[in-house]
């Protein structure tokens, strides 16, 4: 950085007219003052040099715009050259001043004329000089005396005496910015300082009032000298690199940008905390530099942004809590209660939240409509109370009904009754309770004085039938001559049984939440917990970070799985998941004991939240760890039930254990084993032992165990088994026995393993007799091992880790079955057929599926590197490309799987019982087809886990509710947070970062936060050192005035504006910032003039005498439309539509059918879209009617087993009647379509005219069928699904096992024959087992590839799939 011209502090500024006759030092003073005028800088208390500053500080480069001085370069970078002089020398500042004082300076008139463009005209320059002096005086006069903090650090009385600087006698240089940075502006004003301030004030006042009169006084202007007349070509010199000013220490806050100071601070703070676009400090410096180059004033520094960040976090953010886990690791977790409080105070989230279960018939699509929340969750957690008629009714408290009955409600729920005026359903409260009967407890009592609860007498009642609550009954029972509601004798659970004590509440006090709530509402807040591991590195080097996330179960699925509604809790690359769960459970326990206070922005009141865990999600290894299960590689490999895999020690080498333990091993049919669940189990595996191959009977028995019903695991049974394992392991010599028990029970508590390892390590160092060792070990266990060594998951109230970890469909189905089968297909398809497969994949029609066109080269060549998105596309289109490339048994299994997938991903259930029956049937058919193909697939535990999915759907809801795609996507944000940190404290830094993201999201969403102006702001570091949270960070206040939101300007940043894209909403991942309903629209055919009704295709096809519109009406033809539900379709698309039309008041569009019978839902192809001219919809840009060519679903098409479509007439309907777009495929298998067609090639998005690529040529294109494997809009498409003919399980298992044994024998025979011929033959072609395999299993299932050329002796070998030669 360059040095700059000095400022002479001991001389007054020269007159402008004498400037060119002056010396260099005189010009220096003027140039420096001009620089001050071009870059205003406060010369107040923040700009006084520190006593310790002994050298010139390099100033801002923006002042390098002087007329005369030019900075040197290279070795002369700290020197200056005067262009008014004749010489070309560069000198230091001190040398220039000495030269000007001691030596006569050369004339400068000629030099001044040589560069007129760099000078200023006298009048302009006089104004500049006047402004600079006036600003300087005003800055000096603004200095206000402050309290004397004590003697000066240097011990001198004045500031000028404390400077240790090398300065010229005539020039005094002060670096004001350095002074401000060193001492922060806290200097004691001296008497001289005050006198200078007063003098500067008077001078500034005189200069501002006398300037006008001085300019008007013509006598004061000197006569111009002829040689010094300004050049007529003069142009003012404006430095293009001049930067804006930095922000002063005190800035006037703009209320419109509250809680930020101003617009710049708000924008920069948002940029620093976007979840998917992180900026480091160095990148923020670059942004601030760009602000400076653009001339933006009052820009903050990075340090100031960090200070603002801490203040805002303390005011309207959440805290991060430091924990030291029981296993010794330090980690940080964000405040769960504060996050929940933010959700309640967020106006974009709160209106969508549900707090009560719902008992509805259909449709069922949300978690609060299913058994887990409605019936299984504890009433204290699920439905603690309702408020009705200004009375609070808590569960397990007496309540009187209108008919006089007294009940003890134990659950509240809602039912839909009618539509609200805003389109939302109205919910009415209902209760379920036990009848309470009055009894006489004392011999002296003549009337009943107590109640007894009959739990076998259950009643259901509406909230409107409630008459009096517990408090009202306590005040009126004497007047009404009824028993005291606080006197409950006990419970009778069955007729004729005895009375057991009442334990639900303290009868005298009632429900304990009544006292804690302080007459506020108490609401349930169930959540979905999620745990997964991800790498914290950008490279392939694995840096494992275990993370815990959660989302509110009370949000609808469309919102709950949005990125903005997924909340980060904790992560660590050292602490294991169960140790981090220890801190999270501590917060849960506090919430379930004391509750979390929150401000309800919808009701404008404080509420008390009770958290609960609906389920814990994750991949299979993580769910096994949470459930304290041994894992997928164990003998008892299922965490839900006690199914047993291989018996004793008879596992074949192709089993799951061996596949997991051998790097690079293949699946039972040749596919590589690389799933995440299996790779995770590899670390604990030991070297495999050679095992005997299974016999036919053993294969059949294992398949029946795999597919049959097995005893389920429960929380209590798992606890007992873990206690037995720990009791055995904590005894002397019991570690080996404990390992055997873990294998026997199929349990493994990684949290408990830490303590067992400590016991084992201590026991291994003991010496002495057995009795002495046992005594020492017992003393160690009592002293060093805590009394409770169980996993923290068992501390979660009303949570069963074995049953409440639902089957995760992403890893089981997409990354399980479909990945296995696709890799197997790529392994068995010959190379000469793979080009045909690529062509089919690239040519297949994907319209209606919501996916881009497939790239066959990628899906075939890189089959081992595909993602879940690729497998999602394959599951919907595989039957149309594999029909003649794989064996029949394999293809039948593909069809069964593609039939099952839409049922699993169906987001809405109309009839729960029918849906469960259909799903169970589809799963059984898929497993039976798999067993008939080969029972080796049952070495994969996922083929068993899918059997538990129907039970989980009945308890939790549609499987898509507990799918983890959204959470898996969130791992990328965690990884980016780790990458942008210094890796020194990853758990703390990542937790802090996500706490800031929560704050930005909350504030920009218009969320409420408490006004903390009277409370001292605390830094995030101080909050992190607190003990575990005891109350919500939002605080408690019943006064609505204490709850405020951001100013109107920040809120406008998150709203859509006309012509402005919502970038911040997109980066924050908050789709709720947009409108929930799409704007209906249509696009006209280009350059098409309006036509009358009689010339439309609709008029020609509809057999109707009366036209729906007057003959004079004209119409625009449209090529596409978008409905108000967001469904987009164009001419030629296939759609499902309701047969009854949505009549429009103006157009009166009704459904006409030329010759077909009306059905509830019709299948058709969009033939024409019309819009009436000069209509109301014309101004709104909407279409009036859609002409659909209707088709009927008829016979099943072999071999696809999909419904054929045949023409059935024409229908004209309104656009709103369209339900969805569907996918229709051609019957290529029935007509032998080949790849003789061509399609153009594109490179770099440009069409290549010189070459084409192969495409499928369809024969008889009218032979089409409906693709019911479509995952999108499955609830509508599944109406046309054809149920396949079921397979008998015993037959399927026997056929598959026999084929497996026959294949094994044939391969062994071929292997032995090949070995013997290799010894006798040289230079002959490779021998293959095609003829032998065809005798046993037929087709080309086990056919090996033939070499086209005769190989050498070294390269001759026999290639077999799946089973190696023994």
Distance between the termini: 76 Å
Briefly note the structural class of the backbone: alpha+beta
The helix fraction, in percent, is 25-40%
- Note the total helix count: 43
Number of strands: 33
What oligomeric state best describes the polypeptide chains here? single chain
The rounded Rg comes to 41 Å
Describe this structure in words.
This protein is an alpha+beta fold and 1366 residues long. 34% of the residues lie in helices and 16% in strands. It is built from 43 helices and 33 strands. Strands 20, 21, 22, 23, 24, 25, 26, 27, 28, 29, 30 and 33 form a twelve-stranded antiparallel beta sheet that branches. A hairpin with a 2-residue loop joins strand 31 (1234-1243) and strand 32. Helix 9 (302-316) crosses helix 34 (986-1004), helix 29 (888-904) packs antiparallel against helix 30 and helix 30 runs antiparallel to helix 32 (949-956). The longest helix is centred in the C-terminal third of the chain and has 32 residues, at 1289-1320. The two termini are 76 Å apart. 40% of the residues are buried.
């Amino acid at each position: 950085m360059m040095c700059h011209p000095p400022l002479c502090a001991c001389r007054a500024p020269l007159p402008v007219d004498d400037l060119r006759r002056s010396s260099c030092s005189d010009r220096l003073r003027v140039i420096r003052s001009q620089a001050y005028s071009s870059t205003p800088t406060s010369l107040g208390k923040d700009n006084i040099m520190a006593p310790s500053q002994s050298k010139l500080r390099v100033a801002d480069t923006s002042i390098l715009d002087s007329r005369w001085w030019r900075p040197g370069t290279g070795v002369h970078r700290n020197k200056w050259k005067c262009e008014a002089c004749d010489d070309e020398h560069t000198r230091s500042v001190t040398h220039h001043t000495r030269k000007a004082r001691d030596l006569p300076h050369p004339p400068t008139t000629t030099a001044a004329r040589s560069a007129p463009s760099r000078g200023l005209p006298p009048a302009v320059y006089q104004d500049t000089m006047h402004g600079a002096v006036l600003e300087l005086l005003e800055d000096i006069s603004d200095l206000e005396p402050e309290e004397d903090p004590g003697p000066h650090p240097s011990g001198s009385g004045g500031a000028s005496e404390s400077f240790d600087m090398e300065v010229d006698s005539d020039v005094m240089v002060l670096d004001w910015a350095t002074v401000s940075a060193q001492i922060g502006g806290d200097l004691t004003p001296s008497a001289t300082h005050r006198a200078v301030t007063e003098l500067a004030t008077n001078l500034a006042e005189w200069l501002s009032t006398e300037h006008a009169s001085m300019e008007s006084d013509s006598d004061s202007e000197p006569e111009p000298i002829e040689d010094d007349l300004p050049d007529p070509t003069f142009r003012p010199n404006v430095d293009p690199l001049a930067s804006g000013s930095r922000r002063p220490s005190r800035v006037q806050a703009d209320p419109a940008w509250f809680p930020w100071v101003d617009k710049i601070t708000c924008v920069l703070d948002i940029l620093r905390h976007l979840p998917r676009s992180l900026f480091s400090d160095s990148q923020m410096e670059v942004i601030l530099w760009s602000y400076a180059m653009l001339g933006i004033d009052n820009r903050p520094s990075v340090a100031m942004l960090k200070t603002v960040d801490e203040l805002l976090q303390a005011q309207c953010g959440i805290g991060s809590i430091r924990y030291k886990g029981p296993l010794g690791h330090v980690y940080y977790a964000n405040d769960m209660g504060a996050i929940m409080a933010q959700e309640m105070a967020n106006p974009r989230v709160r209106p969508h939240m549900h707090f009560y279960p719902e008992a509805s018939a259909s449709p069922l699509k949300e978690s609060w409509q299913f058994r887990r929340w409605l019936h299984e969750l504890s009433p204290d957690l699920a439905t603690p109370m309702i408020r009705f008629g200004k009375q609070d009714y808590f569960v397990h408290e007496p309540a009187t009904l209108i008919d006089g009955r007294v009940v003890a409600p134990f659950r509240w729920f809602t039912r839909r009754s009618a539509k609200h005026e805003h389109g939302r359903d109205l919910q009415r409260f209902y209760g379920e309770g036990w009848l309470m009967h009055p009894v006489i407890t004392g011999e002296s009592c003549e009337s009943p004085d107590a109640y007894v609860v009959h739990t076998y007498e259950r009643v259901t009642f509406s909230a409107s039938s409630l008459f009096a609550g517990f408090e009202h009954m306590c005040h009126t029972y004497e007047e009404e001559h009824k028993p005291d509601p606080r006197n409950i004798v006990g419970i009778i659970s069955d007729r004729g049984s005895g009375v057991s004590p009442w334990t639900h509440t303290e009868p005298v006090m009632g429900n304990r939440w009544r006292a804690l709530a302080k007459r506020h509402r108490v609401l349930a807040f169930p959540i979905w917990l999620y745990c997964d591991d991800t790498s914290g590195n950008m490279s392939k080097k694995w840096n494992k970070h275990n993370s815990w996330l959660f989302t509110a179960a009370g949000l609808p699925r469309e919102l709950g799985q949005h990125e903005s509604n997924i909340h980060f809790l904790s992560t660590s690359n050292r602490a294991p998941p169960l140790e981090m769960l220890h801190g999270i459970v501590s917060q849960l326990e506090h919430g379930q004991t004391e509750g979390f206070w929150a401000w309800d922005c919808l009701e404008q009141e404080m509420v008390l939240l009770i958290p609960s865990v609906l389920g814990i999600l994750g991949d299979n290894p993580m769910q096994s760890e949470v459930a304290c299960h041994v894992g997928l590689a164990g003998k008892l490999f299922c965490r839900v039930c006690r199914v047993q895999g291989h018996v004793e020690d008879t596992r074949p080498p192709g089993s799951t254990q061996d596949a997991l333990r051998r790097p690079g091993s293949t699946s039972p049919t040749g596919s590589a084993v690389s799933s995440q669940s299996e790779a995770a189990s590899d670390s604990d595996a030991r070297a495999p032992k050679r095992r005997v191959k299974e016999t036919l009977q053993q294969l059949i028995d294992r398949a029946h165990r795999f597919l049959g019903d097995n005893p389920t695991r429960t929380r209590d049974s798992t606890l007992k088994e873990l206690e037995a394992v720990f009791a055995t392991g904590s005894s002397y010599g019991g570690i080996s026995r404990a390992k055997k028990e873990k294998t026997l029970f199929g349990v493994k508590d990684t949290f408990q393993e830490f303590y067992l390892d400590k016991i084992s390590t201590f026991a291994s160092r003991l010496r002495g007799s057995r009795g002495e060792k046992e005594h020492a070990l017992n003393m160690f266990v009592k002293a060093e091992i805590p009394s409770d060594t169980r996993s923290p998951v068992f501390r979660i109230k009303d949570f069963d880790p074995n049953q409440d970890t639902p089957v995760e469909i992403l890893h089981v189905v997409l990354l399980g079955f479909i990945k296995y089968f696709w890799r197997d297909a790529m392994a068995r398809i010959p190379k000469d057929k793979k080009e045909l497969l690529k062509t089919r994949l690239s040519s297949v029609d994907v319209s209606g599926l919501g996916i881009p066109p497939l790239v066959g080269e990628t899906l075939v060549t890189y089959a081992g590197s595909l993602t879940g998105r690729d497998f999602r596309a394959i599951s919907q289109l595989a039957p149309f490309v594999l029909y003649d490339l794989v064996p029949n048994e394999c293809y039948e299994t593909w069809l069964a799987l593609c039939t099952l997938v839409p049922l699993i991903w169906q987001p809405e259930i109309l009839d729960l019982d029918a849906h469960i029956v259909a799903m169970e049937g589809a799963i059984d058919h898929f497993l039976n087809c798999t067993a008939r193909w080969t029972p080796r697939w049952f070495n994969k535990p996922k083929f068993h886990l899918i059997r538990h999915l129907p039970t989980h759907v009945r308890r939790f809801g549609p499987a898509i509710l507990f799918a983890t795609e959204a959470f898996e996507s969130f791992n990328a944000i965690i990884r980016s947070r780790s990458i942008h940190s210094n890796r020194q404290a990853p758990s703390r830094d990542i937790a802090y970062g996500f706490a800031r993201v929560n704050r930005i999201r909350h504030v920009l969403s218009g969320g409420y936060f408490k006004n903390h102006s009277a409370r001292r702001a605390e830094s995030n570091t101080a909050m992190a050192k607190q003990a575990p949270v005891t109350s919500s960070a939002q605080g408690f206040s019943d006064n609505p005035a204490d709850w405020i939101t951001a100013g109107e300007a920040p809120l406008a940043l998150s709203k859509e504006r006309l012509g402005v894209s919502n970038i911040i909403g997109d980066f924050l991942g908050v789709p709720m910032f947009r409108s929930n309903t799409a704007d209906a629209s249509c696009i006209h055919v280009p350059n098409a003039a309006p036509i009358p009704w009689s010339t439309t295709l609709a008029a020609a096809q509809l057999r109707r005498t009366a036209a729906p519109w007057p003959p004079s009406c004209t119409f625009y033809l449209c090529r596409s439309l978008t409905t108000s539900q967001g469904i987009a379709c164009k001419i030629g698309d296939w759609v499902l539509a309701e047969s009854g039309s949505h009549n429009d008041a103006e157009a009166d569009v009704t459904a006409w059918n030329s010759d077909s019978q009306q059905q509830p839902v019709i299948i058709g192809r969009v033939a024409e879209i019309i819009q009436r001219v000069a209509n109301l919809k014309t101004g709104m840009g909407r279409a009036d009617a859609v002409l659909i060519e209707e088709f009927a679903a008829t016979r099943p098409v072999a071999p696809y087993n999909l419904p054929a479509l045949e023409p059935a007439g024409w229908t004209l309907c309104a656009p709103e009647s369209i339900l969805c777009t569907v996918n229709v495929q051609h019957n290529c298998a029935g007509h032998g379509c080949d790849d003789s067609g061509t399609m153009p090639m594109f490179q770099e998005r440009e069409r290549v005219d010189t070459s084409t690529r192969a495409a499928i040529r369809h024969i008889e294109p009218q032979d089409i069928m409906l693709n019911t494997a479509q995952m999108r809009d499955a609830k509508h498409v599944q109406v046309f699904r054809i149920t396949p003919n079921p397979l008998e399980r015993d037959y399927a298992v026997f056929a598959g096992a026999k084929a497996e044994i026959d294949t094994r024998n044939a391969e062994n025979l071929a292997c032995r024959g090949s070995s013997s011929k290799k010894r006798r033959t040289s230079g002959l072609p490779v021998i293959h087992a095609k003829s032998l395999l065809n005798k046993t299993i037929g087709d080309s299932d086990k056919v090996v590839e033939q070499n086209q050329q005769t190989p050498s002796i070294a390269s001759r070998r026999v290639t077999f799939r799946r089973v190696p030669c023994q």
